[in-house]
Amino acid sequence: MPIFKAYDIRGLYPDELNEVIAKKIGNCFAQIINGNKILVSRDMRQSSKPLLDALVEGILETGKDVTDIGLASTPMMNFAVGKYDYDAGIQVTASHNPKEYNGFKTVGKGTIPIGFETGLNIVEKKVQMNELKKSDIKGKIIGKNVFSEYKDYVLMFKGEIAPMKVVIDASNGMAGYTLPPILDELPGEFVKLFFEMDGTFPNHESNPMVEENLNELRKTVLEEKADLGVIFDGDADRCCYVDELGNIIRPDLITGIIAEEVLSGKKEEKILIDVRSSWAVKELIEEIGCIPERVQVGHAYARKKLREDNAILGGELAGHYYFRDNFYCDSGVIAFLYVLRTMSRKKETMSELVRPLMRYPGTGEINFRTEKKDEIIDTMQDKYTDGEISLLDGLTVEYEDWWFNLRKSNTEPYLRLNIEGKNTDVFEVKKKELIKQIKSML
Length: 442
Description:
The structure is a single chain. This protein has helices at about 20-30, 50-60, 75-85, 120-130, 145-155, 175-180, 180-185, 215-225, 250-265, 280-285, 300-310, 330-345, 350-355, 375-385, 425-440; strands spanning about 10, 35-40, 65-70, 90, 100-110, 140-145, 165-170, 190-195, 230, 240, 250, 270-275, 290-295, 315, 320-325, 330, 365-370, 390, 395-400, 400-410, 415-420. The protein is α/β, with parallel strands linked by helices. The chain has four domains: about 10-145, Alpha-D-Glucose-1,6-Bisphosphate, subunit A, domain 3 (Alpha-D-Glucose-1,6-Bisphosphate, Chain A, domain 3); about 165-250, 3-Layer(aba) Sandwich (Alpha-D-Glucose-1,6-Bisphosphate, Chain A, domain 3), CATH 3.40.120.10; about 250-335, Alpha-D-Glucose-1,6-Bisphosphate, Chain A, domain 3 (3-Layer(aba) Sandwich), CATH 3.40.120.10; about 365-440, TATA-Binding Protein, CATH 3.30.310. It has a six-stranded mixed sheet with strand order 1-5-4-2-3-6, with helices on both faces. Helix 1 crosses helix 2 (about 50-60) and helix 1 packs across helix 4.
């Protein structure tokens, strides 16, 4: 089924994902869980409540119990599963996708992510074969409010923060629900954009990786003479930043900026960076006495690797930031607090903090829409055999003065290219060369 992705379930509502399918997914998901307690929550999309109700009905049919915490961000769901030791958790959300989509993010006991390779493949097969379980005794459902506990938990990460002016764009998503009581406990002034929860996303889509979605944030930062701008995606597990000059900051660089604050003096810790992250971030991690380790793109892979390596921090180009002290999960708001702490401690503007990490020219992510993804990757591998090759996630080829990564999107029909060079001349030459070669094969 096309709705089962590498690390979650996601599709168009109601054509690909609807209440009938959601009920089957709930039933089949419950069957793969060892234990009887499953927590559920949802975002603000118009289809989320009916999908959650159907999902819950499917779970209850198996005889397992459900705790519904209601509206929540994905980090809030992860917190509740980890803090209260549930056997599994499901967040109804399509994250940053447009309003027509919805889906499910799933975790097991201890917030261990359940992706396609770790259980969703079995759920998909059971759904397709209609292998539903009907228990003689139906499970029970209870409601639970964890909002206050979640707020107190997040504020444990606030540290020492100096008053500053920050513009926050909640993208009409779940950050508009979870952030206000946290901001009330922080010093400074917070200018709020699009905090009204609205699953139709009337102002802009909730994908912070699309530059035009940051237009209002950039404009407001300049108008307000703010110190910083931050934007959250729909389920508030990701965030991206704008400096005081209105410049968008590449999210992978934030991993390097907050690393020392997260470390709090520790050395020789592992820090995960995805295959698209800049050489500058890798070098900074080494400079502060820690060990950078590349990881596949995607929250299910990153969280699994963070746990396996007991790494202290992980970061992705997409704006996910993972913390060992946060049940090995990502959290947009915890990353935001670490950014504020870093600016406060170093007494530097965001543009000053990011400048040392801007030493290498790079493309960021270039997308090519194609059905020939595997063929193109194989051809490019044959063309660049003289570099150091890694197949950890797509194709990465490194040379002394430049590198590129070419990988398939796990959520969209795109081939994604990232290129970085040690200097502008080699970067421009290689960028034109690779783009020309890929376009010739589309």
